Amino acid sequence: MTTLPFTPVLTLGDIVDLERYPITDRSHPAYLELVAHSQSLLGQEGVAIFPGFVRDQSVVAMADQTLALHPRMFHFREKHTVYFKPQEEGVDAQHPLRRLMDTEKDTVAYADIPADHSIRQIYQSDDVLCFIKDVLNLDALYRHADPLAALNLQGFTTGQQLGWHFDRSDFSVTLSLQAASAGGDFEYVRMLRNENDDCHDAVRQFLDDPKTQQVEVLPQVPGTLTLFRGRYSLHRVTPVEGDRLRLNAVFAYVDQPNVEFSDYARQLFYGRTTVEPLV
Ligand SMILES: O=C(O)CCC(=O)C(=O)O
Ligand SMILES: [Fe+2]
User: Fold this and answer.
1) 186 lines ligand 1 (CB under 6 A)
2) Cα–Cα distance measured from residue 235 to residue 189, given in angstroms and rounded to the nearest whole number
3) Structural domain spans, the chain
């Protein structure tokens, strides 16, 4: 008699630590307390972290599955200003509107993440979506509609990094899957610019001498979910050292439905404009 292999179907509670983060019961006092505390952290610090959001066993499985995808990841490399604006020519070479930062990382597009990768289950969960919406204190939140950009896995090998930058979106949501042997820390300077002022002088001073500002460091701890407000706080991922890759997932959520990338952005970030796999 042949026996079929038994693959247990994982529930959200098998993956996410629902005892610590009771996100499936949004009227529970513990949930309301968690949200209120996280909102105040996000307001004061610009960041809210949720250590142990994903259970250890699931994180290890997801890191292994992600590592197996590494040979097929898209190698992304870009030189950019901290503002992601095209370089301005009429200013001196060290001006932040001209100075270039180095970013290099390997990426798996949403369409290439296997159906049985648990990261999909987290991203597709309405409980997780509502939790993030509540912490951000938004009336509506949607998953990104782009078949490549909605959910990404990232790998950083030795020397790879994200250069200093301000995000073009109000917030980002990441989940650490594996820390590098060394380096690969997330560093940020709170509110180095604001809504009305790109603060070229302060940014320039900081790039010349990082001691002019207080740099906060978030070491990468696997299983930690991080919400970060990056539009006004300068941040980077420090160059990875050693053999072990820094692995994480980036969840794209937006406050509008049906948002997709342009062909230009798809080509830049994924090396293609359609979901057809790269050969
Ligand atoms: O990988 C990270 O931890 C940060 C990602 C980030 O800053 C970005 O994608 O803009
Ligand atoms: Fe960023």
Assistant:
1) yes
2) 6
3) 15-270
